[in-house]
Amino acid sequence: MLCNFHILLSCSPATSSVTTTSAVLRRFRSPGHPSFGFFSRRVWHRVIAPPLHLCRSSEFGTVSLGPKQGEGIVKGQRKMGTSLEDLNWDQTFIRELPGDLRTDSIPRQVLHACYTRIAPSVEVDKPELVVSSESVAELLGLDKKEFERPDFPLIFSGASPLVGGLPYAQCYGGHQFGSWAGQLGDGRAITLGELVNFNGERWDLQLKGAGKTPYSRFADGLAVLRSSIREFLCSEAMNGLGIPTTRALCLVTTGKTVVRDMFYNGNSKAEPGAIVCRVAQSFLRFGSYQIHVNRVKEDVGIVRNLADYTIRHHFPHIDKMNKSDKLSSEADQEGSSLGNLSSNKYAAWSVEVAERTASLVARWQGVGFTHGVLNTDNMSVLGLTIDYGPFGFLDVFDPNYTPNTTDLPGRRYCFANQPDIGLWNVAQFATTLAAADLISKEEADYSMERYGVKFMDEYRSIMTQKLGLSKYNKELIGKLLNNLAVDKVDYTNFFRLLSNVKADPTIEEGSLLVPFKDVLLNIKDERREAWSSWIKVYISELISSGISDEARKTAMNSVNPKYILRNYLCQIAIDAAEQGDYGEVRQLFKVMEHPFDEQEGMEKYARLPPEWASRPGVCMLSCSS
């Protein structure tokens, strides 16, 4: 029997050491929760640390850790298009947190530290710029003409240092497929540094595939063009969809080959090497905190230091809370016993991390995105989609879909399971804070409660908007998802076509399915009856909403994308790029920047997948990259 996906009756992951996560989520599976709205833009306030002038001498040279007194950026000041040499660096992560005393890349356990200073070491031979994002350059305050510099590929391959940068690799651990994996860390990602743009926003620049670090374990610290194209495109595609994500400034080839065994079956081959420059306000993960409570007792204090740092720079509104402030402004609506809990900034932070995570996962479900590797080291504390490996967007609606071949035995990270996994991961994060004596068990449980409430509110709001309804209709949405799964209907194209349905009760029986002729393929008579029955009820709901067909269509097309980054589209671009033709990568990127627009002439990017797209390596991938 198919699961009613909208109420999350899916296979459940393991239980948390704090409480049973599935039980927590089930408490919020009944209808009636208020909607807080999905597509409203939330402003996360940011502050700049007081300008400091600190310099440190090392093998990396003498590097400024912050602007000189009086040289700080005034928030709101606008200056368009600075050069790479004029970027405003403020290295708070290095300045304020404990670091590794060693600076070599020999694999080892790094204790008592949040990072290791390490420079990129990848070998290059005439690196080339494959694709770049002007919108990300604008975020950084970088002149887009900088992409045309002859030395740009050398700088963003790591072969030439970025002036003002202070490269390091972060130390973190994580649960992988439900089991504690110990130290993981940035095994092939090296953060170049932290800059402050002209709006006072902090951004980290990170090269993925830049060479070995102490966290590389048995790996080479490199990345291939195949996976790098996927990471660049999906980072920017998710941003186009309005989903919180790390960004990508550029992608360069190294001119060298990298040996990879894509399916871990002994068939290794040489592939073109490449590096993506990832951009985020922080690359801190759940595992960044977990690692320190799973080590020697004296390292537990690092969790508090790191939490204070994170709140100070990325959740400043919490840092400024008055003691009389409540833990959550939404708490009283739920009648929780913790609704009047006096503020504990760590508890308030835990709640916000939980709610951001819930909102993120709800948005994934809305567009049919499956991350594929939801380990705790791949969960951002800022609520960003991070680490694009074997991801996949749904083609046909299949709640059990997983894009990760490694996940096939149990499908722990399948599409329908993501909400429960998100909660399980939040439970591990809350457990970490409790182990560090930052929050109580009661406060940890409350964070998970807030996850359940927030997810259901967000998901119901999303689905209501996708159908163009004025209010949530559990039965209608449940029957729709069941129909989609039974008939293996394309998820994205169906919802895009749904806006063509008219609120007209006089439509003849034989014409009800006409708007869906391109997606309801080869269905039998009994299934046609099931669909016709659903559409009649749907039309009745549309009529009762009182919204005009034109207004509803405009609203629905603003939340139901026409274009998603299907795996087969990535593969077409990859195949061309591996032959030295980057045109398809660039064109696909441009289309995915505006997924809700019709984009005349680009209709081929909205087509159903061809038969060859179902082969391994296209519809499903491994973590090998």
From TrEMBL:
Cellular component aspect of the GO annotation: chloroplast thylakoid
Does the record's keyword annotation contain S-adenosyl-L-methionine? no
Q: Give the matching InterPro entries.
A: SelO (IPR003846)
Keywords of the record: ATP-binding, Magnesium, Metal-binding, Nucleotide-binding, Nucleotidyltransferase, Signal, Transferase
Q: Is this entry keyworded Glycosyltransferase? A: no
Cofactor(s) recorded for this entry are: Mg(2+)
Instruction: List the signal peptide residues.
Output: 1-17
Name the domain of life: Eukaryota
Example GO molecular function:
ATP binding
Q: Which family does it belong to?
A: Belongs to the SELO family.
Alphabetized NCBIfam families for the sequence: PRK00029.1 (NF000658)
HAMAP family from the UniProt entry: SelO
Q: What is this protein called?
A: Selenoprotein O
| Species assigned in the record | Zostera marina (Eelgrass)
